[in-house]
Amino acid sequence: MITADAQVPAEFRRALTSLAERRLRPEVHLTEIPAPGRIAPFAVALTGDVRVRGDEVDEVEEPASGRFVLLHDPAGQEAWHGTFRVVTLVRATLDPEVGGDPLLCEAAWTWVTEALDRAGAERTALGGTVTRVISQSFDALAERPGEAEVEIRASWTPPDGAVGDHLEAWGTLLCQAAGLPPLPEGVSVLGRRH
Questions:
Q1: If 0-12 CB within 10 Å is exposed, 13-18 middle and 19+ buried, where does residue 37 land?
Q2: DSSP state for residue 141 in the 8-state scheme
Q3: What are phi and psi of 3, to 5 degrees?
Q4: Collapsing DSSP states into helix, strand and coil, what is residue 170?
Q5: Residues near 181 by Cβ (< 8 Å), separated by ≥ 6?
Q6: Nearest by Cα to 178 from 117, 99, 93
Q7: Between 20 and 30 A from 109 (CA), which of 8, 20, 65, 119?
Q8: At 79, is the pLDDT very low, low, confident or very high (cuts 50, 70, 90)?
């Protein structure tokens, strides 16, 4: 993540520390990637993949992936209603039967709000879209099974630079989209830091 450069505002450094200290479920693997440079003067971007064991020995599946971007503009931006903005993306492969459910988009949006609520992630100006894609093969490709995917794009404004709860909520959303059962109430994630 960005170093403690004198040009980096203290609020953004605190936000980076908040992200670095947050532990996610061990199935979520994070990687820092280049952040967008034109939207805000300060930004950090992470990708995440949910990795689970497959049916075969040594097989690893990645049923969901996404991006978490934290933007900071010390002057604020009118549309954000604040100086920070979280922008997220989650993509997941679904069982074709689930993907065909006409209420999938509404259900997937509740995953967003419930994950934020469960993490205690206060926010304003929440907005987003849910897209579902169903593919069916024909003729020479008719043997291929149907495929379904969901894509959830959401952004919101955290009240301050304490954004660890927001990263946790996004990690929960990734796991829910991947079909992992939620952690029971009161269970904390232990293990390696991400």
A1: exposed
A2: G
A3: -80, 175
A4: helix
A5: none
A6: 93
A7: 20
A8: very high
